[in-house]
């Protein structure tokens, strides 16, 4: 019989009642926002809401109208849940402090709509969340809350594609759910998902190879010319889509640092690399910045970028060994 995210959280919080309620409320907010965004994205072109808005977001990137709708949709739901102390979003420079029931509220870092350049060409996009316990005492500044937070308590992404998936990592497990558009329920088979240890897929934007450091250039050329068995390239250009395919089939995703303006890569630690690393780890995969496990990185700023290599443990181990940073304890 199918199970829902509610069943997953209830099952895994049977001995920890204090966090059960905020986690159920936050997961419900993510589900509700997912239903809203999936419906809007399906009709977007008909409603004229896929054009890029004139306003530029804090990252200086062109903002698609749907980016703002995603920001307002999820922020509004987290505000109404009263279970969230503060939300850090890719779409806002400073974290937003929300009215909440102080004693059990949690922190949310989110990318409300990741890969929005795919919207206008009807390609997959996603929403990414990491949920943290606030540091004690939680009197520090909004940014300080996120810079002193522990590792994620729960991580999630929504993937808006052929179907709408919700993937949750919590309490040592990663589970996959699919939206039933007729009932609005997210349903899964109740079993934990395991990242395949091996795989033949690598996902990266090879156009930037000339700006990579030499060991990474050598790794890619080895993959293409010498590795046996050989690998294939699959790249959607949206982290959630590329990650999800590799989570299901086995594979490795790489967004390395580049000489020039991407000296720390492109992806953000708190609401892109960290949740993906947590989801990978709970499924038996691993994520690094090329040198260390993403989950051991202490953020220095809330929009900090990091290089991201994430996927099947055998493939990430092979990458680390070939680029001179073998991972200990793997
Ligand atoms: P590039 C989307 O803009 C994003 O943040 C990720 O979702 C995606 O994996 C990456 O950037 C794509 O970047 O430079 O290959 O277009």
From TrEMBL:
UniProt enzyme class: hydrolase
Subcellular compartments: Cytoplasm
Gene3D superfamilies given in the database record: 3.40.190.80, Fructose-1,6-Bisphosphatase, subunit A, domain 1
Cofactor: Mg(2+)
Residues reported in the UniProt entry to bind substrate: 114-117, 205, 235, 253-255, 266
Domain Fructose-1-6-bisphosphatase class 1 C-terminal: 196-320
Keywords assigned by UniProt, alphabetized: Carbohydrate metabolism, Cytoplasm, Hydrolase, Magnesium, Metal-binding
Domain of life, per lineage: Bacteria
A cellular-component GO term for this protein: cytoplasm
Cofactor note: Binds 2 magnesium ions per subunit.
Cytoplasm in keyword set: yes
SUPFAM superfamilies to which the protein is assigned, alphabetical: Carbohydrate phosphatase
Pathway: Carbohydrate biosynthesis; Calvin cycle
Domain annotation Fructose-1-6-bisphosphatase class I N-terminal: ranges: 7-187
Binding residues annotated for Mg(2+) 2, in chain numbering: 111, 114, 272
Keyword Hydrolase: yes
One example of a Gene Ontology biological process annotation: gluconeogenesis
Residues noted as binding Mg(2+) 1 in the record, renumbered to the chain: 90, 111, 113
EC number per UniProt: 3.1.3.11
Catalytic activity: beta-D-fructose 1,6-bisphosphate + H2O = beta-D-fructose 6-phosphate + phosphate
Self-association state and partner proteins as the record states: Homotetramer.
Similarity-based family: Belongs to the FBPase class 1 family.
Entries under HAMAP family matching the protein: FBPase_class1
PANTHER family assigned: FRUCTOSE-1,6-BISPHOSPHATASE-RELATED, SEDOHEPTULOSE-1,7-BISPHOSPHATASE, CHLOROPLASTIC
Full protein name: Fructose-1,6-bisphosphatase class 1
Organism field: Leptospirillum ferriphilum YSK
